[in-house]
């Protein structure tokens, strides 16, 4: 799933969200490290429509690699480091 052409986008999203302050512009009233990054910001960075970014983000949330948090009328996304480490261990064991 992460090794397809669209998977490259998902890997990029995961990489950028390691250090969101370095990869995304500041957001009003939101701390990108604590609260996450909006789909609009991810779409802008990817150069795709927001709906495309939301599809990738939704998939990453569904498999547990990202957490989504609703603040006011927007959803913000951040990495779930514990789940990512768990998945990495599964692959290391030859899963």
Can you put this structure into words, describing what you see?
With 95 residues, the protein is α+β, with helices and mostly antiparallel strands. It has five helices and three strands. The protein has helices spanning 5-16, 20-23, 39-46, 50-62, 81-92; strands at residues 37-38, 66-71, 74-79. The protein has a three-stranded antiparallel beta sheet with strand order 1-3-2. Strand 2 (66-71) and strand 3 form a beta hairpin. Helix 3 (39-46) packs across helix 4. The longest helix has 13 residues, at 50-62.
Secondary-structure topology with pairs:
Layout: H1 5-16, H2 20-23, E1 37-38, H3 39-46, H4 50-62, E2 66-71, E3 74-79, H5 81-92
Antiparallel strand pairs: 1-3, 2-3
Helix pairs in contact: 3-4
What fraction of the residues are assigned to beta strands by DSSP?
A: 5-15%
Count every beta strand, where a strand is a DSSP E run of 2 or more residues: 3
Low-confidence stretches: none
Helical segment count: 5
Q: What is the N-to-C order of secondary-structure elements (H for helix, E for strand)? A: HHEHHEEH
Q: Categorize the overall geometry.
A: globular
The main β sheet shows up as: 3 strands, antiparallel
Supply Rg.
13 Å
Give the terminus-to-terminus CA distance: 15 Å
Structure classification: alpha+beta
Fraction in helix: 40-55%
Brief sketch in words of this structure:
With 95 residues, the protein is an alpha+beta fold.
List keywords for this structure.
95 residues, alpha+beta, 3-stranded antiparallel beta sheet, 5 helices, 3 strands, 52% helix
């Amino acid at each position: 799933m992460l090794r397809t052409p669209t998977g490259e986008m998902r890997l990029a999203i995961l990489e950028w969200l390691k250090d969101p302050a370095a990869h995304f512009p500041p957001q009003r009233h939101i701390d990108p490290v604590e609260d996450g990054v909006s789909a609009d910001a991810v779409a802008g960075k990817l150069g795709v429509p927001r709906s495309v970014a939301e599809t990738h983000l939704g998939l990453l949330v569904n498999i547990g690699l990202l957490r989504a948090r609703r603040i006011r009328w927007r959803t913000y996304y951040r990495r779930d480091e514990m789940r990512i480490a768990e998945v990495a261990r599964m692959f290391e064991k030859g899963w």
